[in-house]
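May I ask you to comment on the folded chain given beneath this request?
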Amino acid sequence: MREKTQDAKVILCKVLSSMREKTQDAKVILCKVSSSMHEKTQDAKVILCKVSSSMREKIQDAKVILSKVSSSMSERIQDAKVTLCKVSSSMREKIKDAKMLRD
């Protein structure tokens, strides 16, 4: 009976030791998983930050382009106004000359 009790104690000790090792392994695995998830979350944050920064730059570029287009259009409108004024002035002179010739 003592031998069987002793054997049972040895078996229980081995089982407990094995359970402790497996629990320890599980803790290590969970720690690695947690660390990996944290790293991936960090990577995702960096990627989102880069995307956000890139989008801001592209929006800024678009604003600059639109500003240049708007400025160019304003210049063309101004040029058209000047041309129309010259044409109008020239037509007035021709009408005046025609009236003088008629008289």
Summary: Residues 10 and 32 are 33 Å apart (CA to CA). The chain is about 100% helix and 0% strand. The helical segments are 2-102.
